[in-house]
Amino acid sequence: MPSHIQDMDDSDSDGSVGLVELPDGRLICRRHGWTVCHYCGFDFSFMDELLEDPEERLERETNELYEQLSEEARAEIDARWGPPPSTRPNAQASSQANSQSNTGINARPRIIDTAASPEPDIFTIKRGTGRVFPAKFTPPSTTSTPGELFPAGIGRQAIPPVARFIRRDDPEQVLIYADGACLNNGQANPKAGWAFVFKPETNQPAGIVSARLEKKGPFGDEYTQTSNRAELRAILGALRFRHWEGEGFKTLVFATDSEYVAEGATTWVRGWVRNGWKTRTGAEVKNKDLWEMLLGEFERWDYWGFKIQFWRIPRILNVTADRAAKQAAEKEDLDEYSEIMGVLT
């Protein structure tokens, strides 16, 4: 690192996430050198705000985000933590900055077929080996719903703070709704789309990311479009959208109504790996390319100590993602595999 750049966190000498202060006082992501780092969850594009008193800035951001949330979300936060400091100075509250959106960067990733890498990053796609598998999420009650366990909350460890679906009794767990859909599934001219919902409704653009399923997979081969393939694509899209661990979370729970995804990711894929990607009947496993990429994602996140879990929920509890996936299936065809990366979220 050049001598004129000051490392603001000596503990990051191993290359982990941290900040760097430039000679002009601006802050950038230590790992990537960006003012806005979608990978590490940093946004220092408005440096004037950093000249404010930290407590005043945090209170202002809290108030702004609180006003952006829907009435239902504000009521939920009031019940859990109390309203923001501006109305109740002694209340325990969280915050988010005012310029949140779900805009992203379309990127074409690097492809690496080997699993070995000293430092995994979001720009590289790998075929996983089955070294890491996710777990099923077990709710405290059979009647528990995602909305009850993961209501609208504000994660304060991100810079700036973010609105997310945060577990009521564990602020280090975050939930994302994911779904896929396919028009004419199994028939002529199928058209598939995928979507995930990563934040509660605010007066900023909704936290919904969706896209048409590409004709080609991540490793360049072309596949028939199906609902199962779209379901898997939604999970991959969410895992590679943002560096969720950089926002202060330790566990990401996917809420999906797909048995294919929930059981496949936590149970069936173990047998497929052992059997050389053959089913019990000896047939080739369908969507092998996406499953291999998904295993690579599990391994990448495991490197950061980040856990992935799957919660199969009724379709009626996944209506927002389902609707967005169906709308995405109506979009124009996409040939090449590409990705959406979150910037200001």
TrEMBL record:
Keyword Cytoplasm: no
Record flagged with keyword Transmembrane helix: no
Keywords carried by this UniProt record: Endonuclease, Hydrolase, Metal-binding, Nuclease
Low complexity bias: start-end ranges: 90-102
One annotated GO molecular function: RNA-DNA hybrid ribonuclease activity
Stretches the record annotates as Disordered: 79-110, 133-154
Top-level taxon of origin: Eukaryota
Reaction equations catalysed: Endonucleolytic cleavage to 5'-phosphomonoester
Top-tier EC class: hydrolase
Family membership: Belongs to the RNase H family.
Protein name: ribonuclease H
Organism for this UniProt entry: Monosporascus ibericus
